[in-house]
Amino acid sequence: MKRFLLIAIVCTIFSGMAKTQGTSDTLLYQKAWKANRTGMLTLSTWGAVNMGSGFILSQQTQGEASYFHQMNGLWNTVNFGLGVFGLIKSQQMLKKPQMDAFSSGLKKIEKSYRINFYIDFAYIGTGVGLRVFNDRFNDPELARGYGSSIITQGIFLLGFDWIMSRCIQRKINKKTTTL
Q1: Counting beta carbons within 10 angstroms of the beta carbon of residue 19, is it exposed (0 to 12), middle (13 to 18) or buried (19 or more)?
Q2: pLDDT for 19 beyond 60
Q3: What is the DSSP letter of 179?
């Protein structure tokens, strides 16, 4: 939870710093892709830390705790992969700007964060379901451990997607007010 708060604070600071600068199309374009790059760096870091610690701690613990860490490791291989892909895409867009598709591209990115925000509730609900109905599984400790991990990851992603959606939405709003 402390990591999530730290990440949220860092993203908020970066988005606040971006507000104080100029609003030309080129600067807005760069700020939007830099904000996305910062988000992808955050997601990649979260993924790498949880992947590494998850696999290590799953071997050093037993029962529900081991399953919790195991699922964290597995789940974050996806987070890490998506973050790295997003970093590469952001770098490409910063090196070779595509100003003609600026507004439509931003809207697509913001929409994907918004859709993911709602999907995150399903992750949290699934995790709660695994915890609540753990006695219906062959291995209740596995259900509780995986459930707790999915809840944790869902909460992180809920905050992450909300922050990123708001960050990109601000760029879109600035773009439309400068036209």
Answers
A1: exposed
A2: no
A3: -
Cα dihedral sign, 138-141-144-147: negative
Check residue 97 and give left, alpha or beta (phi > 0: left; psi -120 to 50: alpha). Answer: beta
User: In the prediction, which pLDDT does 124 show?
Assistant: 98
Of the candidates 76, 73, 88, 74, the one whose C-alpha atom is nearest the C-alpha of residue 33 is: 88
**Cβ–Cβ under 8 Å, residues 175 and 28:** yes
Q: How far apart are CA 173 and CA 179, in angstroms?
A: 10
Rounded CA gap, 178 and 136, in Å? 57
- What are the Cα distances from residue 37, in Å, to 3, 42, 135, 157, 173? 19, 8, 43, 16, 19
Q: Which helix (H) or strand (E) holds 76?
A: helix 63-95
Quote the domain boundaries for residue 144: 2-177
Helices (H), 96-139: 102-132
> Average pLDDT, stretch 109-114?
92
Sign of CA dihedral 30, 34, 35, 40: positive
**What is the value of pTM for the model shown?**
0.81
Kindly report the CA angle at 109 between 103 and 112, in degrees rounded to 5?
Answer: 140
Number of domains the chain contains: 1
Which amino acid appears at position 112 of this protein? S
